Amino acid sequence: MADVELPDGRRLDHTVIRVRPVAVTAVVNAADEVLLLWRHRFVTGAWGWELPSGGAEPGEDPAVAAARELEEETGWRPGPLRLLLAVDPMPGISNSHHRVYWSDTAEHVGEPVDTIESARREWVPLAKVPDLIAAGRIRSATTVSALLTLHRLRRVGQDNKPPGPAPSS
After folding, report:
1. Are 121 and 37 in contact (CB under 8 A)?
2. Which of 18, 51, 133, 139 makes the best surface tag, with the fewest CB within 10 Å?
3. Which CATH class name applies to 19-155?
4. Angle 41-112-45 (CA atoms, 0-180°, nearest 5)?
């Protein structure tokens, strides 16, 4: 609980959740398919498709964390990563900051190390993303934001051109 003073001077107790930064990876192949995890979230009791993600260690470059998490959770090593977007999914209650990186190449290097992370891993067509979101099969706010951004970029003909320069952090 935090003791908060509002701009008008009133005070209130407010719940705050503080977590380390989250690094997320979206890999889209030449067939316009994105690598997703099918996983269960016990907090909500729901199954859904998500992008591979995980917490960045203190001092770790978020792009390095994103690549590490992708490989650990899927067995795929991404090609060069570029920042797709940065989001704060719950800014009213949490400092959770998510950086989503994008690559158009990946190399399969073996089985995932973190098999507990998902029931399965699949290449899912980007064209199916809006329908999967509408059906409640993609519920993670960060995954929704990233996939809709990639879907839009692909539809306007910007294939294989991630936005922005390759980030260093």
Report:
1. yes
2. 18
3. alpha beta
4. 10
Q: Which residues contact 40 (CB under 8 A, 6 or more apart)?
A: 46, 47, 119
The two beta strands, 98-103 and 33-41, are: unpaired
- Residue of 30, 25, 34 whose CA lies nearest to 160: 30
* Element housing 140 (H / E): none
Give, for all 169 residues of the chain, the pLDDT tens digit: 889 899 999 999 988 899 999 999 999 999 999 999 999 999 899 999 999 999 999 999 999 999 999 999 999 999 999 999 999 999 888 889 999 999 999 999 999 998 888 889 999 999 999 999 999 999 999 999 999 999 988 766 654 455 544 444 4
What size, in residues, is the chain?
A: 169
CB 28 within 8 A of CB 34: yes
Token pair of 105, please? 């190449």
